[in-house]
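Hey, I'm writing a tutorial for new members on how sequence and structure tokens pair up, and I'd like a real worked example in the thread rather than a made-up one. If someone can provide the structure for the chain below, I'll link this post from the tutorial.
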Amino acid sequence: MAEQEKDIKEKESEEEIQTEDIETVEEVEEAAENADETTDAEAAAADEEEKPEEKKKGFFRKDKKDKKDEKIAELNDKLVRQMAEFDNFRKRTEKEKQQMYSIGAADVVEKLLPVVDNFERGLAAMTEEEKATSFAQGIELVYKQLMTAFEDMGVSVVEAEGVEFNPDFHNAVMQAPSDKYESGIVTQELQKGYLYKDKVIRHSMVMVAE
């Protein structure tokens, strides 16, 4: 009996130990699960804490990009303005250069007109015999070369005899009755007038019918 009671007590002790072990394992597993949940919660909380920082960084990156785009747009606008100003400057300079060339050319032509007048007077004063000489032919050749150069430069003679008097082109120094022309018509040209392109270099000196 004593041995049976001893065996029963030992079995009960073993069962208690097993029960305690089971309870200990369950507690450990439960503690592990709680620890995992705590870790997940902490991680989620940490993510939530980091998100504002990331949002803040994203905001700064966007703001920086916007400022960069504004700077590029500003530089492009400045470049376009400078190009337009340079183009206007180039056109203005070209126009001024053309005007200066025209003024200089007209001044040279005006100074050469007395030479042309002398050529024409000399040729008109020659007799037919004198015109046949090599000297007269040389003078006439030089005169023609000069007039060709004038024509190439854009110099032309003002129309006078037989056209209506125009104060923009003619300078009336005499007025007389005429059987050939009506009143207000140029009857005779006393001195030739010249144009350089559209500009009058010298008015024609004319006689006008009454």
